[in-house]
């Protein structure tokens, strides 16, 4: 896509601090990181969401993400990583990107970044489970 900043990064039309590249994927430092070492892994071809990622690319994409997570943890002396992928909602750039963020105990991030709550009843939980199972 002509206006996609991540496509432009992949084509080297926009500068980025690239940390990984292979034939299909590219990883670079996020310009507004949660912590130093926060990387984004993208597809070189324009793919908007996980649902749009071709099935034969799913495994290789997440294998590259796994490799990146190990490298970020090692390079940043982190105790772990937070790995996340938004689809549509909260996806600031409409191009698939996997966030890999170095984590340390006491770093200030508290689980997920949004409020969480329990199901009102066990019955409602079962209804939701059945709806998702039916959609699958």
Précis, in short:
With 136 residues, the chain is an alpha+beta fold. Helix content is 31%, strand content 19%.
Protein model, in words:
With 136 residues, the chain is an alpha+beta fold. It has one domain: HIT-like (HIT family, subunit A, 2-Layer Sandwich). 31% of the residues lie in helices and 19% in strands. It contains three helices and five strands. It has a five-stranded antiparallel beta sheet, with helices on one face. The protein is globular. 21% of the residues are buried. The mean pLDDT is 92.
List keywords for this structure.
single chain; 136 residues; alpha+beta; HIT family, subunit A; 31% helix
Strand order of the largest sheet: 1-2-3-5-4
Low-confidence stretches: none
Summed up, the helix count is 3
- Can you name the CATH architecture? 2-Layer Sandwich
Query: How can the largest sheet be summarized?
Result: 5 strands, antiparallel
- One letter per element, helices H and strands E, the order comes to HEEEHEEH
Write the layout of secondary structure elements.
Blueprint: H1 5-10, E1 18-21, E2 25-29, E3 39-43, H2 55-76, E4 80-84, E5 97-103, H3 122-135
Antiparallel strand pairs: 1-2, 2-3, 3-5, 4-5
């Amino acid at each position: 896509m002509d206006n996609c900043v991540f496509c432009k990064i992949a084509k080297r039309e926009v500068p980025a601090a690239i940390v990984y590249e292979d034939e299909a994927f590219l990883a670079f430092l996020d310009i507004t990181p949660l912590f130093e070492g926060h990387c984004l892994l993208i597809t070189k071809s324009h793919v908007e969401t996980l649902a749009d990622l071709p099935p034969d690319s799913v495994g290789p994409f997440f294998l590259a993400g796994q490799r990146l997570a190990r490298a970020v943890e090692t390079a940043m002396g982190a105790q772990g990583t937070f790995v996340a992928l938004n689809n549509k909602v909260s996806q600031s750039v409409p191009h698939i990107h996997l966030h890999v963020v170095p984590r340390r105990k006491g770093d200030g991030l508290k689980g997920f970044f949004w409020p969480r709550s329990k199901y009102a009843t066990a019955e409602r939980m079962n209804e939701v489970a059945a709806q998702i199972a039916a959609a699958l």
